[in-house]
Amino acid sequence: MISETTGLPDMTTRYTRTAMTLHWLMALLILVVFPLGLYMHDLKLSPLKLELYSYHKWTGISLLLLAAFRILWRSAHTPPPLPATLPHWQQLASGAVHALLYLLLLTIPMTGWLMSSARGITTVWFGLLPLPDLIGRDKALGQLLGAVHENLNYALLLLVLVHTGAALKHRYIDKDQLLSRMLPGRK
Amino acid sequence: MNYLYKSALLSLLLTINPAQALEFNQLQPAQSTMTFGYRQMGVSMEGKFNRFAAKITFDPAKLSSAAAKIEVYLASIDTGLAEANEEVAGKKWFDVGAYPVARFTSTGIKALGGNRYQATGRLFIKGRTLDVTAPLTFQLDGHRGLFDGSFIIKRTAYAIGTGEWADLDTVADDIQIRFHLVVTASPAVNPVH
After folding, report:
1. How far is A88 from chain B (nearest CA, A)?
2. Which residues of chain A have pLDDT under 70?
3. What is the value of ipTM here, to two decimals?
């Protein structure tokens, strides 16, 4: 796609449409699956609890696939550059936060999958596709993986706050075009 | 070798004489398993009962007099999750306070050829008694007889999982009961020839 104003490919100022779709779709799914995980964990055993656990797992596995595809896409497409005015330490911090976010997008669903395997409850994606159990039944390991899964999620929450906080700061305080790199349509 | 030893050896040899009919009647609980499988949200789940007892008399040569009475102590259920074990002991599921035992009483067994058999009987759970039919195999393993078989019950037929659990989309109706019973033999009391 060619920009109407500069005559240059939009890629130089914006993420690709695919990258944007992946970013916002995953953001939306995380916004659902994270509070769902918190809520269902404390429910008393009931059919509702079993249903919510399944929905949580199905969403989590979907996120894992999206994350894998996204990282492949990212490795083949150079993201638009950061504003040249951005201080060096902020460029470094941005790179670190993004790298950690990618890492968590992979490890959080993986630890969930591993936990399900250790607890002897196979994950059946959308109730249709049984995923292989990655490890055998092991109660203690299941509990450990549960704790790891939970704490990685708190780390994700923290990073998402930093990530959105920085994006909003650029938009409303610095009033620069950083966020528009990830927004469709608007110039 | 003293006389006592010799006679003991002799009687031992007589005991294990293969020509003699063996009646399998001593359940070995520690070597036996009673497991069940079911589907929950489309996921195959497994559980087991840790305590059960059986009174079995089985001689492959005398099927007409074969009989089995198997009692499963429902409080010994292990679903793999403590929370679930507690739940299924409750009134909506097994109501183990009122009905601590599930009981199978055989009404007959017939040979299906080879080592395959089919047992029929009455299964009592939670105040209800229904007919069940279980295909099984019987194999000899040294002095042990191995019974392996399975059958399916409908949990709703026994009112197992009522109230909010009655919805079969969450926990399916079919429960497969699988048994692996190790039964040792003692020589049948031979009638006088």
Report:
1. 51
2. 1-12, 186-187
3. 0.77
